[in-house]
Amino acid sequence: MAPMVDIVDRYERYRRNVLNLQASENFICSHVRMALGSDLAARYSHIMPDGHNAYGGTDKIEEIYTESEVSVKALFKSKFAEIRPTGGHIAAEICILSSVKKGGTLMAIPEEYGGYTGYMQPYLPDLYSMKYEPIPYNGETQEIIYDEFEAKAKEVKPQAIVLGQSFLVKHYDLKRIREIADSCGAKVLYDGSHPMGLIAGKKFQPDAMALSDVLYGSTHKTFFGPQGGIILTNDGDFFTHIQENTVWKTFDNYHPNHIAALGIAAQDLIQFGETYASWVVSNSANLARALQDSGISVKYAPWYTESHQVILSSDNREKYGDFREISKKLGNNNIIVDTEGRIGTSEITRLGLTDMMKLGQVMSDAIKGKDVRKDVTEILRNTGVKYCR
Ligand SMILES: *Cc1c(COP(=O)(O)O)cnc(C)c1O
Q1: Using CB atoms within 10 A as the burial measure, which of 26, 192, 341, 385 is most buried?
Q2: Is 218's C-beta closer than 6 angstroms to any atom of ligand 1?
């Protein structure tokens, strides 16, 4: 048996020497880490329905909870916030349970177009005896086919229209979706797991709060961490339903350390969110162009992306291998991307990287089989943590 402490120590050292471009991940600041590793990680604080706390020694934990909630609400200018879910999936479960009855229908963007797998029939819909219907979607333009969607919504009468994708490069026409939803009595659920930090920074789907019934999702993709989920709404009645689907249904303990870390991250985003988000968006568009110019096929030319994601084309397969092989080649050069063809610019932006010409060239060289470890070390040497107080 190898001592676990040594393995974790080696892991930390490994991470200090790689560039991470995974679209679902972000860097966490030292003060967010401090909160995660604090005494709070071992505590409970549980306010019962009659208002008393089931645990002792919780005064400060309650204060931390309240301030974290205040910070999240201030960041999104939302009237209500549920900050306890420990992941975007749990936030999604709560919102779906609060809007779709047993036997009811939800519409979502199909997995084949980058929609979230959890909304497909065998997962959440089956678990809660609901029906999933696909939102008609054009993969080429990355747009909902609105006329077809309207006709289909009138026919299947969904109780919820669930927006959001795990592969996400374009805004939705939320005005149009709102009209369609109102015409068939559906709630609009915006799963912002990927763009949450960009929405906070007002650089992606800035109307998400105003035009959907609820905005929810992960707090660690473009958001500043920690891993968790939040639910935001301005609708008091809907928030009451949301509260009914939390404790003892979808979770019990909410991990108070994660609540403390979330509040710190939210305050960092209040201060730096707009600058950070505008750099993320321009970095991804520039990285897409740089990759394409250096011979790597990127999807959706000439606009490529409006978010933090750059999507590689499967046309690269013949010359450079499939997404797994590309990920492996980059990984061998200390550049981390997923094995699904997504590249994300959140984390490198937090490290202050802005020269996407250079990064695109280095990545392209690695994909073509060159050893670029020295270039990666050089890039890392010139980075520093940004957007942390
Ligand atoms: C990542 C993701 C989720 C799940 O979030 P977790 O935080 O991993 O639980 C849900 N929906 C979408 C669109 C996602 O991309």
Answers
A1: 192
A2: yes
